[in-house]
Write a structure and sequence with these properties.
Blueprint lengths: L1 E2 L5 E2 L9 H5 L4 E6 L6 E6 H7 L1 H8 L3 H5 L1 E4 L4 H13 L8 H13 L3 H13 L4 H13 L6 H15 L7 H5 L2 H4 L3 H16 L28 H13 L12
Parallel strand pairs: 3-5
Antiparallel strand pairs: 1-2, 3-4
Length: about 260
């Protein structure tokens, strides 16, 4: 357990409810430079939000690392759009339904790296809500391969969902056409074998449910406790309310800080 600049204890990966962030954005801010070249952007973020929601940032600012001394963080390996969505999530309290699928995979990779379990799970939930996007499935699998996440829960979901679509010839996504596609040739051998195993399972059991309809926590990484609500449940309900009422929330204005 750590302490923030105000002497309060912080977990480094706190579970929060929707609306937590805006109410608790306080104290010092730090500068974060993300991306390289034309994609490079600079963010100013409340330090307590970063530490409370990320094991990576919490550890960084507990100890006397260079980032703590300079009050500046550099993350060149990740896209500025993914980090912008992370910052938006910090301040708004949940992922908005309007985010693009390809950006969400990048957000998942970032969240995994910085040790933000709740964002990892919320990102997967939103990707499940985008399951009709066939290109997202294969592109996401490729992106996870490149990032070394072949054995992740997100990879498991994407592979199973793609297998389901292939088995049911979903929107013309047939096994025959997929085998001829460039995407299939770019799959790693182990990933391709897992896909074929899942395809065989869905083909032999046509009543098997689609992964996108499985219980919310099936592909989550948070610790499961009997009788304890999933930490990502509030965010899912908030997205449903926004979509049903056709409301659009404003994007957090970074220039404000």
């Amino acid at each position: 357990m750590s302490h923030d600049a105000h002497g309060k204890e912080g977990s480094g990966n706190g579970t929060r409810s929707v609306g937590f962030s805006v109410q608790h954005a306080e104290g010092p801010v730090t500068t974060v430079h993300v991306g390289t070249d034309e994609d490079k952007r600079t963010f100013r973020i409340h330090l307590n939000l970063m530490r409370d929601n990320s094991e990576y940032f919490n550890t960084m600012f507990i100890h006397g690392f260079k980032e703590k001394v300079d009050n500046e963080v550099i993350l060149e390996e990740y896209t500025s759009e993914a980090f912008s969505i992370f910052v938006d999530w910090l301040y708004v309290g949940f992922l908005k339904p309007s985010h693009k699928s390809d950006d969400l995979v990048d957000v998942w990779i970032l969240a995994h790296y910085i040790g933000c379990t709740q964002l990892v799970d919320e990102t997967l939930d939103l990707l499940k809500e985008h399951h009709d996007d066939g290109d997202m499935l294969i592109d996401g699998i490729e992106d996870l391969q490149k990032a070394g996440h072949e054995n992740s829960k997100l990879m498991q979901y994407l592979v199973e969902e793609l297998a389901y679509r292939l088995a049911h010839d979903f929107n013309g996504t047939s096994k025959k056409s997929f085998d001829k596609s460039p995407s299939a040739k770019r799959l790693a051998w182990a990933v391709h074998m897992r896909l074929m195993e899942q395809l065989a399972a869905y083909s032999s059991d046509t009543n098997r449910a689609a992964p996108s309809t499985m219980q919310d926590c099936t592909f989550h990484v948070h610790e499961k406790e009997r009788g304890v609500q999933c930490p990502a449940a509030d965010a899912k309900r908030m997205r449903a309310c926004i979509e049903n009422n056709h409301k659009v929330l404003p994007v957090w204005d970074q220039d404000h800080w």
